[in-house]
């Protein structure tokens, strides 16, 4: 037997280890005293890609918008339009010519300069014949795009478009560098304060600070930021409590929010969103093609019960596709209020005295599953049988419902602000066609008078409340749970986003 | 049979199983309230209060009624699945025992393959083809029961085929099929009955697992597995929503396993001799 080392060596090593340990122990407080420069933001669903100009999922924008990509204009935390890559603009008196003065000295993350040719490329790509931009129709009013010089962009419109500047602030309208456009889906290159560094599929997206960011007025405090994707609310809660995730701006389970109250490490911030939970119906398929059937179903729904049962009472009932935060909001929950007897009578009038049965394609998210089960019970009261078929979101839902419109009824939260115009789109999964409604929305765009526009939005809301192309249920709250020392996250969500520009740690 | 009171395991198993079957059958004609009836005002009420014996769930539905109907859904699915599995498996077992040769080799390797795929996985694959639901659950559970019974009956039948009286029967020119029906099956029926009881417990557990994953009966039909799945995020506020269906599953499986063990002790000729 050979001894490996002597006792004296052991003790010497022991002393050294002790000394080292003590050194570390003394050094540690200094290491912590420097403010943290990394943040991990939790999200429930992972986006399918990272290019907001080719995909409709709001999660794409929630990762990239204002962090990696920027637009000509932007939308601030109060929902107002602000200049961004366009310094200023002039609108001709007839509302048909927009002249943008573009910011100079802006570079994409790959070093290419931003100028009017890039802006023209982006807009042409978005409005082109083979464009797959999710908001393609926002660009259809553009007739010609001129670039007199590198810093000037002139848009000639076919008709006045009152919402153009607001739309230009959206994720779908961010500026895209021509040579990277094809790869932005997996390797996004923008002009924003953060550079994309890595995407571990199924787990997280890593961003790092853009050292050459053009806007010197803003000092970005975070060196790195990660978006972690955790689907299960229990796991979200555990990750927050353990400190693995610093913030969940949209926490997944309202029933767990109460458990964070009184937590001295985590702050609970309940804000507004634009998330309208609506049960869309296939308006071209029997029996939903009959307005009376849709109205009867709406009257069978007790919205307060849905909010209480599905979202622990945290939510606001709505009567149309519009939220109380939106301009010109009208409370229309009284147009077809909960009334079982009237619902039954109307259903009989439509020729279904014994009810009917249909299939609900419900995504797997808790709000959709729970709301579906409540609707199932409510419809049973008027003799209508609803079978629930869980449809995986996003992939299968997008393919079956959004793209193919192969469904009877579905339920989903529409996240985009001021998207009442989706009912004027053709094709769109509701298959709702009402020229009168389309005319009202056209008037909104033709008008430049804000109060006139608000009034027209009121008319549009009323038409939907009467026609019931979808069952309008409730607006979700924004359940923000984050570390109390983490500052700068938006409390409200005028547009789905996780803007990290001002996020920083405070001791 | 008077020995049943000297066999506590068998007695407890029998009582628990009968009680369970009784509750399941009762749910067909009577429950405290309609299990799909929602009453949001009365949501998440604890047991033994205004919410009834076992309280209410997140939609204000009566948990006691849901558990009762869940017992029927769980037991009927499991019974059907095991019945299919036992019938097909035993048939395969005795036929293979009759023919032997290359057929035995192929069937046994086939059983190994089915054994290698967990029932949850095969249910997910089936669900992709057939859509999730009760039928899928029954087939998925039945499929993995088949090799269990095939192996059991093959081993048992092979022993019987080696007996002198079977050789004698062959000697007087009886057909193999007739021998299987008259001599083989009656002599291995005890083993099959014991195995059915034990597999029932396993089937209930698997059915709960499938429902937990959303591959069982769709809502509004209450199932123990989905009740457990739905209760997850409410555990802090309403622990009974997880504890009660969990206990129901545990008691059902325990009862059936004890019954199976007890039956084996009573019916097995070796233990009887000792």
Walk me through the structure.
The complex is a heterodimer of chains A (507) and B (274). With 507 residues, chain A is of the alpha+beta class. Chain A is built from 13 helices and 22 strands. In chain A, helix 7 (291-299) runs antiparallel to helix 9 (340-349) and helix 12 packs antiparallel against helix 13 (450-467). Chain A has a 4-stranded mixed β-sheet, with no helix packed on it. The model of chain B has no long low-confidence stretch (mean pLDDT 89). By secondary structure, chain B is mainly alpha-helical. The A-B interface holds A 233-234, 253, 255-256, 258-259, 304-305, 308-309, 364, 366, 370, 372-374, 376-377, 380, 387-390 and B 36-38, 40, 43, 58-60, 131-132, 214, 218-220, 232-237.
Summarize the structure.
The complex is a heterodimer of chains A (507) and B (274). With 507 residues, chain A is α+β, with helices and mostly antiparallel strands. Chain A is built from 13 helices and 22 strands.
């Amino acid at each position: 037997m050979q001894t490996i080392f002597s006792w004296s060596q052991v003790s010497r090593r022991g002393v050294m280890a002790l000394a080292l340990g003590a050194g570390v122990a003394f050094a540690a407080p200094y290491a912590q005293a420097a403010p943290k420069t990394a943040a991990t933001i939790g999200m429930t669903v992972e986006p399918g890609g990272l290019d907001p100009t080719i995909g409709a999922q709001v999660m794409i924008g929630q990762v990239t918008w204002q962090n990696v990509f920027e637009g000509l204009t932007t939308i601030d935390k109060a929902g107002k339009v602000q200049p961004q890559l366009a310094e200023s603009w002039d609108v001709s008196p007839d509302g048909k010519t927009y002249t943008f003065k573009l910011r100079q000295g802006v570079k994409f993350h790959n070093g290419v300069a931003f100028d009017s040719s890039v802006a023209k490329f982006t807009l042409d790509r978005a409005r082109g014949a083979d464009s797959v931009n999710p908001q393609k129709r926002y660009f259809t009013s553009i007739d010609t795009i001129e670039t007199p010089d590198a810093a000037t962009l002139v848009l000639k419109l076919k008709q006045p478009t009152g919402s153009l500047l607001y739309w230009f602030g959206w994720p779908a309208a961010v500026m895209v560098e021509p040579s990277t456009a094809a790869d932005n889906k997996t390797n996004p290159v923008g002009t924003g304060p953060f550079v994309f560094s890595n995407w571990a599929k199924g787990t997280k997206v890593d961003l790092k600070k853009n050292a050459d960011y053009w806007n010197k007025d803003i000092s970005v405090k975070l060196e790195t930021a990660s978006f972690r994707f955790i689907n299960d609310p229990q796991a979200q809660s555990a990750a927050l409590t353990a400190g693995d995730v610093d913030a969940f701006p949209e926490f997944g389970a309202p029933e767990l929010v109460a458990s964070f109250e009184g937590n001295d490490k985590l702050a609970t911030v309940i804000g507004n969103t634009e998330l309208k939970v609506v049960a869309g119906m296939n308006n071209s398929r029997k029996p939903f093609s009959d307005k009376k059937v849709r109205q009867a179903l709406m009257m069978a729904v007790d919205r307060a019960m849905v909010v209480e049962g599905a979202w622990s009472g945290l939510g606001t009932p709505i009567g149309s596709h519009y939220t109380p935060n939106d301009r010109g909001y009208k409370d229309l929950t009284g147009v077809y209020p909960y009334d079982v007897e009237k619902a039954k009578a109307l259903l009989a009038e439509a020729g279904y005295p014994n009810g009917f049965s249909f299939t609900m394609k419900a995504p797997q998210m808790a709000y959709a599953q729970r709301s579906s089960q409540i609707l199932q019970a409510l419809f049973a009261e008027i003799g209508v049988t609803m079978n629930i078929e869980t449809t995986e979101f996003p992939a299968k839902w997008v393919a079956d419902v959004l793209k193919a419109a192969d469904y009877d009824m579905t339920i989903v939260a529409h996240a985009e602000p001021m998207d009442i115009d989706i009912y004027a789109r053709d094709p769109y999964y509701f298959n709702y066609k009402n020229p009168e409604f389309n005319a009202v929305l056209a008037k909104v765009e033709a008008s430049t008078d804000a109060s006139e526009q608000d009034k027209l939005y009121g008319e549009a809301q009323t038409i939907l409340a009467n026609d019931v192309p979808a069952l309008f249920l409730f607006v979700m709250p924004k359940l923000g749970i984050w570390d109390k020392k983490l500052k700068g996250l938006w409390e409200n969500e005028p547009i789905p986003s996780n803007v990290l520009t001002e996020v920083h740690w405070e001791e | 049979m008077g020995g049943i009171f000297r066999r506590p395991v068998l007695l407890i198993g029998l009582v628990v199983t009968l009680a369970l079957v009784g509750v399941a059958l009762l749910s067909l004609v009577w429950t405290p309230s309609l299990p799909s009836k929602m009453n949001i005002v009365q949501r998440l009420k604890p047991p033994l209060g205004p919410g009834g014996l076992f309280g209410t769930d997140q939609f204000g539905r009566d948990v006691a009624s849901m558990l009762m109907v869940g017992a029927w859904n769980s037991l009927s699915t499991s019974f059907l699945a095991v019945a299919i599995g036992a019938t097909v498996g035993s048939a395969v077992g005795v036929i293979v025992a009759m023919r032997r040769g290359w057929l035995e080799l192929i069937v046994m390797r086939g059983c190994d393959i089915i054994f290698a795929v967990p029932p949850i996985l095969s249910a997910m694959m089936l669900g992709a083809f057939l859509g999730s639901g009760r039928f899928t659950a029954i087939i998925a559970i039945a499929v993995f029961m088949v090799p269990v019974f095939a192996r059991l009956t093959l081993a048992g039948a092979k022993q019987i085929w080696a007996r002198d009286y079977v050789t004698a029967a062959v000697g007087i020119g009886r057909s193999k099929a007739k021998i299987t029906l008259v001599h083989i099956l009656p002599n291995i029926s005890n083993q099959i009955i014991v195995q059915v009881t034990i597999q029932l417990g396993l089937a209930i557990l698997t059915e709960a697992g499938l429902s937990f994953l959303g591959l069982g009966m769709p809502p509004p039909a209450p199932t123990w597995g989905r009740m457990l799945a739905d209760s997850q995020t409410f555990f802090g506020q309403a622990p009974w929503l997880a504890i009660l269906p969990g206990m129901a599953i545990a008691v059902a499986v325990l009862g059936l396993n004890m019954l199976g063990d007890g039956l084996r002790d009573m019916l097995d000729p070796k233990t009887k001799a000792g």
